[in-house]
Amino acid sequence: MEPFDIIIVGAGPIGMACGIEAKKAGLSYLIIDKGCLVNSIYNYPRGMTFFSTSEKLEIGDVPFISHQAKPNRFEALEYYRRVATAWGLQLKLYEKVNKIIRQDDLFTVKTVKNTYRARHIIMATGFYDYPYLLGIEGEGLPKVKHYYDEPHPYFGQQIVVVGAANSAVDVALETYRKGAEVTMVIREDEIRETVKYWVKPDIENRIAEGEIKAYFNSELTRITENTVEVRTPEGYLTLANDFVLAMTGYKPDFSFLESLGVEFQEDEFHTPVYNQETNEASSPNVYLAGVVCGGLKTNKWFIENSREHARLIVDDIVRKKKAGG
Length: 325
Hints:
Blueprint: E1 4-9, H1 13-24, E2 29-32, H2 39-42, H3 73-87, E3 91-92, E4 97-103, E5 106-111, E6 115-123, E7 130-131, E8 144-145, E9 158-162, H4 166-177, E10 181-185, H5 200-208, E11 213-215, E12 219-223, E13 227-232, E14 235-240, E15 243-246, E16 250-251, H6 254-259, E17 286-288, H7 303-306, H8 308-322
Parallel strand pairs: 1-2, 1-6, 2-3, 6-17, 8-15, 9-10, 9-15, 10-11
Antiparallel strand pairs: 4-5, 5-6, 7-16, 12-13, 13-14
């Protein structure tokens, strides 16, 4: 089987954009994902609304028409399905990549279903699959959730929301307004300054009024079937509890990059080393696209400012191909 010019790992918006640029350049390509199309967006909360306006989420010159100023999850899923169909993207979904092996100038990509070969690899894997764990007793109980879907299951329940960033604040407000008794446990001494400016006063007012209880400079130390233990500046507390929603953030899968020989900067964000003009990593013919470029700094790259990665990468691959590389 003739090797693909490019195999793209990750069928999110940026992986799709890379496939579109490859198709425009006449390169053979394949996009592989362990989940569904735009799997991360699919796993967002059902009522989630994007920070960005629709035109900033567009790829492949396909217009994104939203019925409101900022599109929601449902509209985004519809849009990216339409993009995939319009461009006839070559996709292998629900096909996890188990291993990528470099053999001279080619890569062998082994998945749960097949084996492929490629001359270049683009890693567009995002970061949403690996939550930061609390690392405490009881975290494995069914009542502990690292992903949030919708507020209805928490009606009439005593819930603890862990975190002080946008996700935690959104979850706390939404579940409170749908009838949950909400307590926030926050390591910092205040709600983060990075919380959306139109939401931050709302959560601060709810806390000030006592409608949402908040323990600052505090952390969970143990979770049981019916309680949680919290370390606060005033001492330890045991609270009655039905669910823990740990909105502690997510991180990329660095192990795959490391297995491909990608080097990392010695910084607090474990930032991968790559050429910012071409997005080629320190490992030849391995390219990085999208949020994975930021390492642990997952709020650096978004759809709107990393769409350009696709063109930079494919332009470089075309240049190499013309030069016989």
